[in-house]
Write a structure and sequence with these properties.
The structure holds three protein chains of three kinds. By secondary structure, chain A is mostly helical. Helix content of chain A is about 70%, strand content about 0%. Chain A has two domains: about 55 residues; about 230 residues, MetI-like fold, CATH 1.10.3720. The chains are: A mainly alpha, B alpha+beta, C mainly alpha.
Amino acid sequence: MAEATLAAQSKPEEISTRPSLLHNIFLRNLSAKIAALPMVLTVLVVFVGCSAWSVIYSFTNSGSLPSGKFVGFAQYERLFKTARFVGSAENLALYGVLSLVFTMVVGFLLAVLMDQKIRFENTFRTVLLYPFALSFIVTGLVWQWIMNPNYGIQKVAFDLGFTNFRFDLLTNSDTVIYGLVIAGLWQGTGFVMVLMLAGLRSIDEEIWKAARIDGIPAWRTYLQIVIPMMRGVVITTLVIVGSGIVRLYDLVVALTQGGPGFASDVPAKYVYDYMFARGNLGQGLAASTMMLVTVLIILIPWAYIEFGPKKNK
Amino acid sequence: MESSVSIRDLSLDFGSVKVLQSLDLEVAKGEFIVLLGPSGCGKSTLLNCIAGLLDVSEGQIFIGGKNVTWAEPKDRGIGMVFQSYALYPQMTVERNLSFGLRVSGMPKAEIEQRVNRAAEILQIQPLLGRKPANLSGGQRQRVAIGRALVRDVDVFLFDEPLSNLDAKLRSDLRVEIKRLHHRLKNTMIYVTHDQIEALTLADRIAIMKNGTIQQLADPHTIYNRPVNLYVAGFIGSPSMNFLEGTLNPANQTFVADDGTVVPVGTYAFETPVSGSTKAVLGVRPEHILIGEDAKSKPFTQEVEIEIVEPMGSDTLAWTKIAGKAVTFRCDSDVVITSGQKILIGFDPARGSIFNAETTNRI
Amino acid sequence: MAVDTLEPRGMRPRPFFTPRKIIIYSLLFFISVYYLFPMYVMIVTSLKSLDEARGGNIFALPIKVTFDPWFKAWDTACTGLYCEGLKVGFLNSMKITIPSVIVSVLIASINGYALVNWRFKGSEVFFVILLFGSFIPYQVMLYPLVIILRELHMFSTLQGVILIHTVFGMPILTLLFRNYFASLPPELFKAARVDGAGFWRIFIQIMVPMSLPIFVVAMILQITGIWNDFLFGVIFAGNQNYPMTVQLNNIVNSTQGVKEYNVNMAATILTGLVPLAVYFISGKWFVRGIAAGAVKG
């Protein structure tokens, strides 16, 4: 902006209106461009540049430092032969499917429940949404305590005489993922509920009136009229929740540290460990590229549906 | 005449807000009733009460002789058309028409027959396979009417059905609805804020304000003999001219506040007036005549034209009588210009006189 | 007319208890219990002595209320190497959150304004890439960012982590501001331009005063988001600047020593206190923020 002001002052006064108009346009654009510089830099350097760098260097044999030696798909071959990575991908897939299905279904049902003209709606919404304001670290640590087999719910049940009751999800490598899912649902369903509720409320009230006049029961109205109308909100929510799942990291670190063994390891943790702890950059970058590919698999069909060629419905 | 819809002492409150107040309304079978009023007057609320979409606080509603005050909307024998069409967007036109019937478990053959009949009446057969998104506004409204039609009910409720359409389509569909009424002879209750729709469609118009019906009468009576100042001012465009003054029954004159005297001997009083009364004299713009036509009228005055608005079919002129701005309408062939002095006159028999205090017609 | 008193009249009779109502409210009650009990467990555990926390029932109220775990969590709990409690992390989180929120909101609001009112060639393209960028897993960009910050001598510094938060907060905030500015009447902007006001004057004197609600929403979004961050803090802030979430995780998940569950829960609540306060105070603004950010996009 300072430069622009200087330029304006150095311009001789007697110049006719035409060039000064041009000058004005130039000035105006300059200010906007300077203002947008952080955005342009973020896009070019971080989102495009850094991603491209990572993808390119995932084809090298970089160890603790990036090196230029091109090794083709060797890192990927090794990646898919590494039990820990394949396991972490499987864990994420199981977690992802379960938490996606449950957050969407439960979130929608909660929204329907909240939409029944209930009293104290604000109070209930506050209660359902507060976990979303918390850090994954906080969520993870609380549930770690609740699911602690020696002191948590299992002990309470044991003390009550239910000596066969088991709630030791986190210490059992077959069930630890379900523990993650429970904690994740506790934090995330309120968010989905709010989005779905906004979707429900955006539906024209006259649609409901028309359905009542037609004598269509409420459940059928939801199922056959309202849900199809909420397509946009549902898809947007799916994309947001889905891309959040791919990133899953904090919750695992706080709740299980990836254990027992590597039973609750996830790709994001694999990437972090290989990049920053084990000094095996090539592996870390290859794994992160696979995460990117996963997101693209979610994102591209969505972008195609939403912004692609004109819809013919 | 047999009553189709009958509303008795109906009230509706939302908390302390009285939306409808002790309303009574008898609608004859086959009658076309228009509820007319500004937004917030309760006309849509009344329609929703009749439909059963809102619970009433007090009073009763009868449809076809049956007390439906507590009945579900679907059991009231009504069909309803909404302003936003409220078509189910993911269903084809055919599904939109048949969905309610399917849910009620009607045999397939009968559904098909009803849908085809409705489509034939509304001339939407070619659209049956399409989805609402691919229809024009006018086509959507036809489908919405069709959805009421297939229910095969005696009473149709319209909630501002033409408000979302542009002017041209609106007048086309208006005629369409009138034609439909002639053909089906159903009872129709129609809510609008558009007085042209009301005047052209209605057998009777109910003018509403603050949750009460001000006047219920045929369009001609509403227009020519409004019961109070509110109705007089609401109906008619441009609106009625009002002069404030005193009515002297002794010498049959109306004296405007500035002293202008209007003889009212020809006026047909509805209530006998004793003693001089503060009053308002109302004259519609088209009842003020000019030139030769004005000469024979009980009241004449030479005035200066202030502004002229040519409207195409006729011309509106603005002037002052008794210090008040007054409009009158004249033939578009008559050449008048602003600043021109001209003789105007009217017959109070065609006007309306209201008591200034009660605002009721005298 | 004589009205039969048995005829339906007036309000439809609505019994106070209908099966439908009973089902709805009991469902809501049980769901609320599920959502609230972790908070309850946290609080009661944090008020128990260690023996009671280990020996008793996690749902039981403390027999003897003690605030020692809170003091210990705040002041002396050990985070791996040091035993200075969470207060260090709290201060670090403040030092990270406050400037990050201000800088990121400022930049994003200017971005949104430029995108709506001062479009230049390619501005929409950058915006679309920015939005899609927000879906890229952070892990993909982490290492190159470490290199860049190291080159700028900002790795392991407060400035570094502030920069990172600004960059990654940009997509959602820019979207928020862009949508808001686009909803303002364009005549306002045109009138100001006819009056001869320039880019900055229009922004500061016309747009900002009209946009306080969206600034509040953006601040809420960023305060909770940045306070709750773990990944960027652990990588970019450096040991001496670890934010509260990282310190908390170190206290609870450090392997050495006896696990003091009561202190852990006190520390956990302390860490959640700031975002919870923001959430409860802001109320529907928070809801508006997440709904606006997600649904309109």
